[in-house]
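Re: the pair you flagged

First of the two:
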Amino acid sequence: MPALPVHPRTGLRAVGLRRDGRPIWPVLGGSGDGGPPAPAATDPTSPAPAAPPSPPAAPPAPAPAGPTAEQLADAQRQATEATEQRDQLQAALDAIQRAINPDAGPAAADPVQLAAAVADRDRQLADQGEQLRAARVELAAHQAATDAGARPDRLLNSRAFAATLAKLDPDGDQFADQLSAAITAAVDADPDLYRAALVRPARSGGEFRGSPQTTPQPATLADAIAAQFSG
C-alpha cells in the first residue's frame, strides 16, 4: 500500500484513499467519512460556567443630620411664645369671667360656659345700645319737630316716620339735616295731621279803666289827727 499523503495546509496525514484515488483527510471531531462532524461529547467532570458577578451593593444612606443649634434655639423661642400667649389668653378669660360673674370661683371658669356668657352679654349690650340710639333719635326728633312747628306726638306715633328714624345715626355728621328733611317730608305729606295749630298770643295787661282813686295822705301830724277824729 502506498504511503498516504500529507495535507499541505493542516499537516495532517490522510486516513485513506477513495476508490478514485483521492485522499480522505481527517476532520477533527468527524467520523472520517466526510459527513458532518458529530457534536463533541460534554465532559461530565467539567465545571459549570461561572455565574455573572452581582452588581456592587449601593452605599448606605447617610444618617440624617441632627438639628443645628440655631434650629434648637428657634424651637425654644416658639415654645416660649406659645406658652406666653396661652397664659395671656387665660388671664383675659379670667378677667372676663370676673367681670361677668364676680361671685364665681376659679372652678367656674369653663371656656364653653364663658363663651356662652360673653355672647349673651354681647347681645344684651347690643340691645341696650339700640335702645339708647332710638331714645336719642326720638328726643332729637321731638325737639326738631317742635321747632319746625310740627306735632311731635303724632309724628312719633307714625310707623312710616318711625321707620325713617330707625335708619338715622345720631352720631352721623348729616343727622340734623336728615332729621329735618324727614320731618318736612312728613308734614308736607299730611299737613292737617302733623302741622301744629297756630296759637294766638295772650293779651298782655288788664283792662284800663282810668286812673285809680287814691286817698290823699296828710301833710302834717295835726292833719292826720284831725282826719282820724273827723272820720
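Second of the two:
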Amino acid sequence: MFVESKNQGLDHLEFDENSINHKISVMFDLLSELHGSEQLVLKAGKLNALDLMDSNKISERLTALARLVYDDPTINKEYTESEFDAVVNDLENNIAYMLAKHAVEKELEAKVAALMQERHQEYLQEIQAEVIKQELGADNAQTLKKYAELEMLEAKQLSASAVDLMRPSDLSQIVGQKNALTALLSKLSSPFPQHIIIYGPPGVGKTTAARLALDYAKTRPYTPFEEDAPFVEVDGTTLRWDPREITNPLLGSVHDPIYQGARRDLADGAIPEPKLGLVTKAHGGVLFIDEIGELDPLLQNKLLKVLEDKRVMFDSAYFDPDDPRVPKWIKKLFTDGAPADFILIGATTRDPTEINPALRSRCAEIFFEPLSEKDIEDIVAAAAQRLDINLDPQLCKMIAQYTIEGRQAVRLLADAYSAALFRGYEAGSSMTEVTITKEDLMAVINGARLMPMNYIKASSKFEVGRTFGLGVSGFLGSVLEIEAVAFPAAQADKGIVRFNDTAGSMAKDSVFNAASVFRLLTGEELNSYDLHVNIIGGGNIDGPSAGTAILLAIYSAVKQVPLPQDVAITGEISLQGKIKPVGGIPEKIYGAKRAGMRRVFIPADNLDAAANIDYGIEIVGVADVEELLEQLFSHTASEREVG
C-alpha cells in the first residue's frame, strides 16, 4: 500500500512537470508570434537568454521567459519547484496583457488605414503644407517668441561671484604648495606626461592647480600638447552611468533604436548610433576628474581599460557591417573604436588606500599639504587686493584662526565684505571705499557658527602621567591627549590595566606592548599597580603610532616623573623598545604645530619624510626608547614646573 501511494505521488509530480513545460513552450510560441521568430532571437541574444531558452531545466527556461517578458537582462533568480506555479501564472498574465495590447494596436492600425484611405486628400494637403514649412523654415510666430524670450534671458546676468573673482588665475597665486606644484608641472610638462592623482584636504588648491597646469604645459615646446589641447572637467560625485551601457557619459555609449531610439535618419533603418564620451572629447589633452575617489568602482575598472588601449570600443547587436545604409563614421566607430589618448588628472580628499589599487599603479601620486596660518593670511590678503578693499592685517590672522581651507577663507572675506557694504549703505556712507571691521568679520563668523581651529593644548608646564600623541584624519594631523594614572594594586600582585575600548583594538595592543617595554626598561612588574590609561576625546585610533606616547604616559604615571606639556610623540613601539616608522609624518607635524607644540619626536627612520617641512617646530628623530628618554629628560629639574 505504501509503495503504491508513493508511486502515485511520483506520477502526480511528473504530470505537474509536464504541464509546466507545456505552458512554457506555449508562452515561447506566443512570444514568437508576437515579435516574430527572428526578432525574438535577436532580443533573446541582447538579454543573454538564448542558452536559457534551450535549457532542459524548468527554472532556467522560466528565467529566460522572465527576461524576455520584463525586458531585463539582470534577472538571475533560480526558481524553486514551489515557485513554479506562481511564476508561470504571473508570466501568463503579462503575456496576455502584451497580446491584448498588440491586438488593440492592430485594430487601431486597421482603423488608421481606413481613415487614411478616406482622408487621402486631406493628407496630401498636409504634406504640401509640410513641404512649404520646410522651405520657409521650422519657425513660426510662437517659436520665434520663445527664441526672443531666451535672448532676453541671455542678456540679463548677475556679475561674477566673489569666489570666482578671487580664485587664482595663475600658478604663482597658489599659496603653500610649492613642492606639490613643482611635482605636478614636471610630470605634466614632459615629452612623456604621466597620469596623476592629487591627494589633499579640501580647499588647498588641487582643482585650481589642475586647471592651470595644462596651460603651463602648452607653453613648453617639448610637450606633446598642442595649442588647442582640450581640458575636460567632470565631477566624480555626479557622474552616473548605466551598467547595461545604455548611457555612459564618461566612456561613451550606443543608442540602440529598440531601447532609446536615435536620429530619425538612423532610427528608420534601425541603425545604432554611438555617442562619444568625455574620454574622446579629452583626446590630445587632459581629462580632469574631481573627487575621483567617488567614482563607481566598476566604472574605474572600465576607465583603466581605456587608459591602456587609448581607445574606446563600441558594440551593438544591431550593427551590421555589411548594411550599405550604415554611415561611414558609424562603421568606423564600431570597427576601429573612438580615439581616447589623454592624460588623466584626478583629485581626491580620500586616503590613497581607498583608491582602486590598479588605478593608483598607473598614476603618479602628488600630495598637497594642509595650509598653515601664514598661508591662509596670504590668501586672504591677496583676495582683498583683488576685491580692492581695505583690510586690517589683524583680520587676516582672525580668519586664519577659524579655517584651514583657502576656499572657506575667501568665502569668509567675501561675506565680511558684503556685511560691511550693507552696514555702510544703511548708515548712508559713501560706497566708493569699503572698509571691513572686526565687528563685520565676527558677525559673519558667529552667523556661520564657526569655532576656532587652533585648540592650543601645549603649555610650558610639566605634568605626571600626561603626554601627547599624534594622529592623522583626512590629510589633517591632530593631537591625541593621552593620560595615565597608577595606584598600588588593591590586591597584592593582582594589579589590573584598564583602557577605554572606544580607542580601538590596535590602541589596546599598543598598551600591552608598552607594558612589556616598561618591564624591559625598569625590571618592574605592572601587576603591582592598578593602571588606567585613557585617550581623551574617545576617538578610535586605527594604527600603532600612539604606542610610544602610551609608554611615556605609563612610565610617567608609575615612576611619578613629570613630562613636558609642549612635546608630542609619534611612533610604533616594538617589544625590544625600538621606535618603528609610521605614516603621515608631515600631517602629524602640522597638527602638532597648530596645537602649539614646541618639539616633536618622530622615529629616526622617518626623518627623511620631514626633511622639507618648515612649520617652525623642532623635529627630533629617535631610534629607541632609551634615546627618547634621554632627549626628553635632558632638562634640569629647576626648569620643570609640575602642573
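Residues 1-15 have pLDDT under 50 and may be disordered.

-B.
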